[in-house]
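Bumping my old thread because nobody answered last time. Still need a sequence for this structure:
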């Protein structure tokens, strides 16, 4: 089993960049797909990006393609989300979780961390 802790959130101006990190514990990290999700106040949690266990395969929410990049370092048990050219719509609490395939459904992920707040000012 894997436990995760998200970090790196903060306040950033529209057009700026931010890098989020997800630090995982456990000896099976390299067997899981890892995903990033976000949740704005009053809205449902939504899929943002996911990366295969090897790091070769990725999947993104259409609205973040070309702006966000997900990556992982299995040697360090970490997953990152590089957020470039951020928009106010990117505001929300960002969460990291695991799955068994490159799913986009919230219900197919587990092991959620506590999240890290990202606020994009206009």
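Sorry it took so long. Here it is:
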């Amino acid at each position: 089993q894997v436990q995760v802790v998200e970090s790196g959130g903060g306040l950033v101006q529209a057009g700026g960049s931010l890098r989020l990190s997800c630090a995982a514990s456990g000896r099976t990290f390299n067997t899981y797909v890892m995903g990033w999700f976000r949740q704005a106040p009053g809205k449902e949690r939504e899929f943002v990006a996911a990366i295969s266990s090897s790091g070769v395969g990725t999947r993104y929410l259409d609205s973040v393609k070309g702006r966000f990049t997900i990556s992982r370092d299995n040697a360090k048990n970490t997953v990152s989300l590089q957020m470039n050219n951020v928009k106010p719509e990117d505001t929300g609490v960002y969460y990291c979780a695991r799955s068994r395939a490159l799913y986009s459904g919230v219900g197919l992920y587990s092991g959620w961390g506590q999240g890290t707040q990202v606020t994009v000012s206009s």
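The chain has a mean pLDDT of 96. Let me know if any region looks off to you.
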